[in-house]
Each structure stands twice: as C-alpha cells, then as structure tokens.
Amino acid sequence: MPRFVYRPDDPHANENGMIDAALATSNRGAAAPQIIRDEMDATRHMADGRYYTSKAKFRSATKAANCIEVGNEIKTVTQPRKPAVLSREQRREAIRGAIRQLQGH
Hints:
Order of helices and strands: EEEEHH
Mean pLDDT: 84
Number of helices: 2
Helix content: 10-25%
Low-confidence stretches: none
C-alpha cells in the first residue's frame, strides 16, 4: 500500500498536494555547515550533584570524579575479554555441563 505525504510545492504533487513518500524530496542532502554547540539543557551530574549547561564543563566534572562517559562512542571502554585457556578435555566437560544445564538436569 503506497504511503503519501503532503508536499504541495513538489512538482510531483497531485491536486491535493499529496505525493508518494518514495518520491518526496527533502533538504536533508543539501550541503550546509553543521554546528555543534557547547550549550545544553541543565543536566544534573550524578557524581557531584551539580547542574551543568556546558558540555565541556560536564565532561571535565566527569573526568575529575574519575568516571567515564558511556554513549555512542566507537572506541571500546573496557578491555577485550581474554579467552579462557582450557585443555581439550576441560572444553568437552564445559560443553557437556552447558548441555546438561539447558536440559534441566
């Protein structure tokens, strides 16, 4: 079932100003400078209980409290887990134990 959007100024629009959503043009691809501001809504820092409106000051308070920010960062925050070194027999027994656990025994 086609989905329609209201875009009366679009050249594909019908007499009611509706066009197929697949044909809708948007300005998202237009080249424009992107600005990331330091200002933010007042946010309470959980380490010191103060409210901050500056991202930089919030981050410096986080570092001062010896904490780390967790979010959408690409870098991993923790060290990668090291694989357990098991002999062939230990590995077999671990697999058998997991199967027994799944079977409810």
